[in-house]
Specification:
Layout: H1 2-24, H2 26-48, H3 67-86, H4 105-125
Length: 141
């Protein structure tokens, strides 16, 4: 009887402590938020004072280009871009592979019919290999 009352008291104490445990986990979120804010402030400060070799992360503001200036710049770049798109560069692969010789349809059909007849004859004679578990074993006569 005493053991069961002890278990009940222990269980009620654990259930009573559950909300406290649950609310205690929220403190980590506030700490993480503080750390994020601190890191963000450090990043902003680092962006204001670049280190040697980093370059300037915030470039100086220049005057905006007009539409006419942008159009002239596009026209000046266009011939080079067209030539770059047409020319072959090693490592890019050939975008237009060389065309092979044209073979008439009747000739292709005849070649296919010959190949199929050979395969049909091999299959009927039992000499065509079966690609399964027994592949590589001697064919049955």
């Amino acid at each position: 009887m005493k053991q069961s009352s002890f278990r009940i008291a222990l269980a009620s104490a654990v259930f009573a402590a559950m909300p406290a445990i649950t609310f205690a986990q929220g403190a980590g979120d506030a700490r993480q938020t503080d750390l994020r804010a601190q890191r963000r402030a450090e990043a902003v400060e680092a962006a204001r004072h670049p280190q040697p070799g980093e370059g300037n992360p915030v470039p100086e503001a220049g005057p905006k280009a007009s539409r006419a200036d942008r159009a002239k710049a596009r026209q000046a770049r266009r011939p080079a871009a067209v030539e770059a798109a047409r020319s072959f560069k090693p490592g890019e692969g050939d975008p237009r592979p060389a065309a092979g010789p044209r073979i008439p349809r009747a000739e292709r059909r005849a070649e296919r019919a010959v190949r199929r007849a050979e395969i049909k004859a091999l299959n009927k004679s039992g000499r065509l290999p079966v690609y399964g578990e027994s592949y590589g074993a001697a064919p049955t006569p």
